[in-house]
């Protein structure tokens, strides 16, 4: 083939350290916008960024020119610094050490976008930990719970 082509839709999920509820309604749209901007600068097409007070989700088209680890390092690192610059109440802000990345078929992209767009409703009845365990089960990922949460 003369060209290198790819289409990878990823669902990224990561939480605040110890699930602290730093991402208030006031800062949330700005943080989501910042995360989208960073992802775009890394070459991603961003479909949606969402979440609640203790975690975020991103649905992106992932470029073939970077690694997942590099993208998450940049997203989490720069946004952590950005959050701390937003005021004294965010001085202790930090993301958890790990993250979840799940591949999504193109036929399920719109379902993922809707899922992320309606996080507030979903989390009225479900904690982040419960939601994350559902992802692990759906994607058949075996983990030792003692290493899952930091």
Determine the strand fraction and express it as a percent band: 15-25%
Using the CA coordinates, give the radius of gyration.
15 Å
Overall 3D form: globular
CATH homologous superfamily label = Transposase IS200-like
**Top-tier CATH class:** Alpha Beta
**How would you describe the oligomerization state of the chains in this entry?**
single chain
Number of domains: 1
* Overall average pLDDT: 94
What is the end-to-end distance? 45 Å
Structural class: alpha+beta
Task: Please characterize this protein's 3D structure.
It contains 5 helices and 4 strands; from the N terminus they run βαββαβααα. With 150 residues, it is an alpha+beta fold. It has a single domain (8-105, 117-147), classed as Alpha-Beta Plaits. α1 (28-41) runs antiparallel to α2. It starts with 7 loop residues before the first strand and ends in a 12-residue tail after the last helix. The relative contact order is 0.21. The mean pLDDT is 94.
């Amino acid at each position: 083939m003369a060209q290198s082509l790819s289409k990878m839709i990823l669902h990224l999920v990561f939480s605040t350290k110890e699930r602290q509820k730093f991402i208030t309604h006031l800062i949330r749209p700005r943080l989501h916008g910042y995360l989208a901007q960073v992802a775009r600068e890394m070459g991603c097409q961003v479909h949606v960024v969402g979440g609640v007070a203790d975690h975020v989700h991103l649905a992106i088209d992932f470029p073939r020119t970077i690694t997942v680890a590099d993208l998450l390092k940049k997203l989490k690192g720069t946004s952590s610094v950005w959050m701390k610059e937003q005021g004294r109440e965010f001085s202790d802000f930090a993301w958890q050490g790990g993250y979840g990345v799940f591949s999504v078929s193109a036929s399920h992209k719109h379902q993922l976008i809707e899922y992320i767009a309606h996080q507030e409703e979903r989390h009225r009845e479900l904690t982040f930990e419960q939601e994350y365990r559902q992802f692990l089960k759906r994607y058949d990922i075996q983990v030792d719970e003692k290493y899952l949460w930091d």
